[in-house]
Specification:
By secondary structure, the protein is α/β, with parallel strands linked by helices. It has one domain: ATPase, nucleotide binding domain (Nucleotidyltransferase, domain 5), CATH 3.30.420.40. The chain is 32% helix and 23% strand. Helix 5 packs across helix 13, helix 6 packs across helix 7 and helix 10 packs across helix 11.
């Protein structure tokens, strides 16, 4: 089978594209593209027609790169019309598996299978009460979602030939670049604008996935409410937050609003960790982003690749007397306000799989997506989930030497965490 080489991720707030080449030692990056999708809530000056055409225009900007235009590509969908479900039944002959899975899917998929594209993957056979059982993941996607995305890509000059879902593309990118051992459980959290993709990988051949209907837009709304900004200003401020403290705004600060403390106040009590299950009893049993480069822009700005205090100071900005502890408090306060529901959903998902002994624990969390670039978010997630958490850049394990000269220093490092889904799609096989 040939590696597909091109992955196109059409998100809520931007289009991301990755072209790869398979090498003897892994993958080499051939090209990367990204363009904003202008949305009405953040661009009220745009006409309704311009907003309706915004995804197509973003795809067209990316397709100006010959590495993507008219190439066979993989694409993905996510959201409420994507239904991934686990299944388990007694071991049966291989010839009967597909029919059994379809029967199982009819019981657990929330819409008519006649209107769905259906596929499945089997995990390794397991033993339960001394008898072999078949376990796996079945995914149904409403055909209207597939058709809509297919027509959009074709209209922009692409050749979409492989359909995936965001969560499985995410898992594919991690498996291909990082790998997992048999005993390791890793949670991948891709925070988009409206949806967060969660993939829990237990060993190299078991994956549990879901989409959660919240994301980075909630940060924009929290900044808007707390600082008295309209949504376009708040979205801009969110994107700039990596370089300038949030409290360099008029209208008050988090320390006063939330009463101090590590997170700026009472966050609702301690949360349970998921790194250790000693003493854990099973329960009764009886689905945008921070944009560094918009292809509408004609050049690069040094601010696009700034990281750390040195670059912050070089930008000519001032810290306005706010020390590091105050900045952390402000960032974590807005994170708690905006992403509390997301944290709760992730905690509940971890508990579900741990309680049922589907996984023994969660060993670590890897964050990606545009919102994963927000300051202090890794520490915030680690503290709330009780699991080590860091930023995941899939480009770190890919050879980028052949294209690095096309971009400013550190640019691919900054862009990489946004590209996880597109990277996983580019690694699909025909």
């Amino acid at each position: 089978m040939a590696t597909l080489a091109v992955g196109i991720d059409v998100g809520t707030s931007s289009v991301k594209a990755v072209a790869l080449k398979r090498t003897g030692s892994g993958y080499a990056l051939r090209s990367v593209g990204q363009a904003d999708i202008r949305r009405s809530e953040f661009h009220p000056e745009e006409s309704p027609q311009a907003i309706a055409e915004a995804p197509l225009r973003a795809l067209e900007r990316v397709s100006q790169d010959s590495a993507f235009s008219r190439k066979a590509c993989a694409f993905a969908v996510s959201g409420p019309r994507v239904a991934p479900r686990l299944f388990k039944f007694p071991s049966i002959p291989k010839g009967e598996v597909e029919q059994a899975i379809r029967f199982e899917a009819e019981q657990i998929i929330p819409f008519d299978l006649a209107q769905a594209a259906l596929d499945y993957v089997l995990f390794d056979e397991a033993m339960e009460e001394g008898k072999p059982v078949m376990e796996g993941l079945v995914v149904a996607v409403h055909k209207e979602e597939v058709d809509k995305r297919y027509v959009l890509l074709k209209s922009a000059g692409y050749d979409p030939v492989v359909l995936d879902i965001d969560t499985l593309a995410l898992a594919n990118a991690y498996s291909e670049t990082e790998g997992l051992n048999e005993r390791e459980t890793v949670a991948l959290i891709n925070i988009g604008a409206r949806f967060t993709n969660l993939s829990i990988m237990h060993g190299p051949r078991r994956c549990f996935v879901r989409d959660i209907a919240t994301g980075g837009d909630m940060l924009s709304r929290a900044i808007s409410e707390i600082y008295g900004l309209d949504l376009p200003q708040a979205e801009k401020r969110k994107r700039e937050a990596a370089y300038t403290p949030l409290d360099d705004l008029e209208g008050g600060g988090f320390a006063d609003d939330f009463g101090g403390g590590e997170f700026g106040g009472d966050m609702g009590g301690q949360t349970e960790g998921f790194g250790d299950t000693e003493g854990f009893e099973p329960v009764d049993d009886g689905g945008e982003e921070y944009v560094l480069l918009d292809s509408d822009e004609t050049g690069f700005n040094s601010a696009d690749t700034m990281t750390g205090d040195e670059d912050f100071e070089a930008s000519g900005q001032t810290q306005s007397g706010m020390d590091a502890a105050q900045r952390i408090s402000a960032n974590r306060a807005v994170l708690a306000d905006a992403l509390g529901d997301l944290i709760s959903e992730i905690q509940d998902t971890f508990k579900y799989y741990i309680n049922r002994r589907i996984i023994p624990r969660v060993d670590k969390v890897r964050l990606c997506g545009g919102t994963a670039k927000f300051p202090d978010i890794q520490e915030f997630f680690a503290g709330q989930l009780g699991v080590p958490c860091d930023l995941w850049n899939p480009f770190a394990r890919i050879d980028v030497g052949g294209v690095a000269g096309k971009y400013p220093p550190n640019f691919l490092d900054e862009l990489g965490p946004l590209m996880a889904v597109a990277t996983g799609l580019a690694m699909r096989q025909l």
